[in-house]
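[job 4471] stage=fold_predict status=RUNNING
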Amino acid sequence: MTAVRRSDATRAAILRAAQVRFAEDGYQRATIRAIAADAAIDPSMVMRYYGSKERLFAAAVDIDLRMPDLAGVSRDEIGATLVRHWVRRWEDDPTGDVLLTLLRSAATDDTVAERVRTVFLEQILPIVRGMSGGDEREAAERAGLLATQMLGLAMCRHILRIPPVAAMSTERVVERIGATAQRYLVGTL
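[job 4471] inference complete, writing structure tokens
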């Protein structure tokens, strides 16, 4: 194996270990030593490849929400389409664990909260901006309200596991939350 391939394999092992450790322990409690032990390498290698715990965390939770293209979606179905997309991301996609890791840690750590804000600004706000007719303040408000629903849903369904919400089928969640998301996106505020 060449040095480049070995380097890539080491970097990938560190990243996988970090994703698991951050998901299990949160940002604050996860340590470079524990991540290195999980990856079966020396802690100095973690620092060599990532430089700091903060940069390792940023790499471990680098998330692309893969927001759906709404151009072909009926205006009446936009809320349901986005809710369905998010629920499937949390439940059927391996990156759902990364999203939940961010949510668990954001309430207690400013670094993580900043990462959530960045995802919001870079991936959710542009979609809403496209629907708001160019009013930047209104787009930001609508996107923020949409985020309250999606993050609240994830918290209640997957972290707190509130029984009625956790037990709902995906389609039931889409039916119930989609109407609220629809209003936040294109309805009267």
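[job 4471] summary: Residues 75-186 form one domain.
[job 4471] exit 0
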